[in-house]
């Protein structure tokens, strides 16, 4: 039978070692993710690493190095679709990017193992785990640092609540005050709220602002007839 004729003990042992390395390193990466209670944890990372190793190893067996190189390129793009499934957008926040990147990197470990580059597979795994663990204190320190709105890039919105009969006047004056402060409006919309009041929302073109200048413009808006409240909000740039 062709199956028996194709069986080679040396090649089988080589495949076993490649998959075993992918399994061990995928377990190490996935264990850290599982400990952090991420959506793609231990089993997912192991399966990604072992699957990538299996595809590359099979390509080596049937098509040599050229075929393996093509399969690696397919694995890279294919894991991208898998990673997209764990990315979620919650309002202005995007969640799951680190999990998706870890899956993509686990596939790289598997590809190295499948290509018999065991040392490189271990090296990539070490850097992945280091990136997900050793860099956490640095990330927390950066997040706790005060934000300089004049240097940081962000989305800036102005919210003004006014009586329905003053909407047109307040809207025009809001655009005028923002232009006077040299913060042109990219878009502006209105939303009807309860109690006969309307919320005007202006989205600024600028991604960096001087808070004092915006506060001065908002101060002028608050003095207009019918205005109940005027505030600004900042959200990260996608």
Automatic annotation (TrEMBL):
Subcellular location as annotated: Cell inner membrane; Cell membrane
Main subcellular location: membrane
MgtC/SapB/SrpB/YhiD N-terminal domain ranges (all copies): 19-139
Keywords associated with the record: Cell inner membrane, Cell membrane, Membrane, Transmembrane, Transmembrane helix
Domain of life: Bacteria
Protein topology in the membrane: Multi-pass membrane protein
Entry annotated with the keyword Transit peptide: no
This protein's record includes keyword tRNA processing: no
Similarity-based family: Belongs to the MgtC/SapB family.
Domain MgtC-like C-terminal: 157-230
Membrane-crossing residue ranges in chain numbering: 12-30, 42-62, 68-88
Known function: Virulence factor required for growth in low Mg(2+) medium and for intramacrophage survival. May be involved in regulating membrane potential by activating Na(+)/K(+)-ATPase.
Stated name of the protein: Protein MgtC
InterPro entries assigned to the protein according to its UniProt record, in alphabetical order: MgtC-like_C (IPR048640), MgtC/SapB/SrpB/YhiD_fam (IPR003416), MgtC_SapB_SrpB_YhiD_N (IPR049177)
Taxonomic lineage from the root: Bacteria, Pseudomonadati, Pseudomonadota, Alphaproteobacteria, Hyphomicrobiales
